[in-house]
Amino acid sequence: MTYLAAEYQGEATLNTVEKTVPTLGEKDVLIRIEAATICGTDSHILAGHHYAKPPVVLGHEFSGYIEDVGSKVTAVKVGELVTVEPHIFCGNCKYCRIGKEHLCLEKLAFGVHLDGGMGQYTVVPERTVYKVPDGISPSVAALTENVGCCLHGIDRANIQQGDSIVILGGGFVGIVLAELGRMRGASKVVVAEPNEARRQLIEKRGFIALDPLNQNIQEEIMHMTNDLGADIVIEAAGRRDTAQQTLNLVGRGGTIMFFGVVPPEYTVSVSPNDVFKRELNIIGSAINPYAHHRSIELLKRLNLEELITHHFSLKDIHTAFEVAQKGLGLKVAIHPNRGDL
User: pTM above 0.70?
Assistant: First the structure.
């Protein structure tokens, strides 16, 4: 059986190609993709800022219905809606053996090293598949992996009841991080975002929205915190200037978390003496270890449907990426098996 898929072919080239469904292994499942959402990583791959192994079908955030299963698959059945935790770990390196699989030295990812979800079908191992509860749409189910990344970040930030949080970047992950931070008991959640429509949505959700183009973010944060600075500052825009800005916004004993994917060629200046004197915690957050199941349990509470602002068929994949890259919406969904969009 053949199917259509959006294949990254290197050097910023993304083409729709016809592929053949591979033979199922005894512990594999065949998924008919219902929705795949565009992540910043996908855009970074096309821009040459993130590694991928071409030719490869993009998409690591996706959901779909089980079409067929291998002879020894027991966890899922044909017809069930599922989402996929898109990583394969070696199981043998130090990090896999100490419970830090996400730092695996030989990690592989669907949509980066292995064919992902921006196609009509994909084949994945049973162990990566999670059933989606009733009442959750395929588009929201596709967001499970990204929510898991946010959940891991919030775990890493170690938010305490009453903490103040500043999030730089009010895209999809910025909003989800804000929601999760509030769930953890943050007393004040501030999101800095230049896009007016996003700021309106952020305020609608009950958070404080600041405009970095027309407001002095440092002055605003110091005013809100009685000149103490925020307890937690999260960089969620993936920009060098906002990464640098975090140091001016965090208070003594506070935590800076780099969550956004700043291009690897960019650096920021950090004074070790400043980190020492203020006892700052500077941490990173990578992917979503052991968070996929918890993410599914949270989907209904996060009101994610309104964050999926655009829907496209596979034939309009280039338009979909253009919308995502220009920041014209929040989450952009691809529906490979629908041609009526």
Answer: yes
Between CA 119 and CA 6 the distance in angstroms is 6
pLDDT above 90: residue 49: no
Whether 235 and 260 have beta carbons less than 8 Å apart is answered as yes
Provide DSSP, 212-274.
Answer: TTTS-HHHHHHHHTTTS-EEEEEE-S--HHHHHHHHHHEEEEEEEEE-S---TT------HHH
- Give the chain's largest Cα–Cα span: 64
**Residue 177 burial (CB < 10 Å; 0-12/13-18/19+)?**
buried
In the chain, what percentage of residues exceed pLDDT 70?
100
Please write the tens of the pLDDT for every residue from 317-330. 999 999 999 988 99
**How many whole angstroms separate alpha carbon 160 and alpha carbon 172?**
23
Which domains are present in the chain?
Answer: 2-143+304-335 (3.90.180.10), 154-284 (3.40.50.720)
